[in-house]
Amino acid sequence: MPTDLYQGMSDFYNAFNGNLRLRDLQIRTGYEINGGKDWKEILPACASFEILNCSTYVINWFLDEKHGYESPESKRKLVIAGFQLREVAQQILEDHDMTSLLPLLSNINNRVYLGQMMDIHDLKVARMNDYPNYQDFLEAYQQRCRLLSGVFYGSCFLAGSIIAGKADELLYEMGAIYGAATQAANDFGDFALPVKRLSKLEKPYQDQFSDFMNGKLTLPVYLMTQRANEEQRKRLEELRLGAIDGNSYREILDILVDKGVYSDCLIYLKQEHKRCKSMLYTKDKTVHRDIIASILVRITSNKFLSQLRKNIEDRTDLPSCLA
Q1: Residue 285 and which of 33, 50, 88, 239 are 20 to 30 A apart at CA?
Q2: pLDDT at 205 over 60
Q3: CA angle 152, 153, 158 (to 5 degrees)
Q4: What phi and psi, each to the nearest 5 degrees, are found at residue 216?
Q5: Please, are residues 319 and 246 in contact by the beta-carbon 8 Å criterion?
Q6: 54, 9 in Cβ contact below 8 A?
Q7: CATH architecture of 20-317
Q8: pTM for this prediction
Q9: pLDDT tens-digit readout, 273-312
Q10: Are the beta carbons of 80 and 5 closer than 8 angstroms?
Q11: From residue 17, how far is each of 11, 48, 201, 239 by CA, in Å?
């Protein structure tokens, strides 16, 4: 592997090193809740799935046209790095006699990029008229969220259970719903100001207002646009195509609140959280069930949603410049 490409991939991995990797925890709880006794048995799977996760991120940076990767050379490197990481993820499983998990990797790749196709082609503000009915939009949006994140999250739980010798399909489905809901929460968090200075190596949903400015038809964007009057729709389009400062950000927050978008998005996330808990609580109460229950809280309570809530509460005091 070329030295500069290897260094770039190493930098990416090190950006997450030392932080809690949720997928590792999902694999382990999926393993132990189904009778697994030696957590070290799952280490190759954890490494493989985390590297596959990195692969999807760098490819998504290219597809989503993230800042800092505008040059043709940097875009090509992203694609190459993504392919290399995917091969490494597969090789780890092959080297450690875990080929039973290879179909999961293949399915994750297939689903993630089907989700990306929906993201960059189907669910766009420019195609708003394709979804005049809210339920039709919601069905498409939920499918997109499940493909982008849900299948991966569910597969982590399933991988752990397979290693334990018992494929837990209920845990997979709960994980898929959880992952899809987390994706929706991150979409909502797109409207929050960054908690700290951003770097290139942070997750795509931390790219300030990127979904809104790139014309993605997420749940909050759909509701804002549907409920806005003609004058407000024109203003939203102006804001989307221009630079967002303190005054324009305040306008966006006002629409989120005044049109009931903020409250309805929270209601949706709470419903998905409840759905996951209902499935989880069909299992016997154990420490592992409690751990998974604590993970589910991230659907309705993460730093992006907390920051958005704070931004809304303090919106009258926002500075005129956000830079």
Answers
A1: 50
A2: no
A3: 90
A4: -80, 140
A5: yes
A6: yes
A7: Orthogonal Bundle (1.10)
A8: 0.86
A9: 999 999 999 999 999 999 999 999 999 988 889 899 999 9
A10: yes
A11: 10, 15, 12, 37
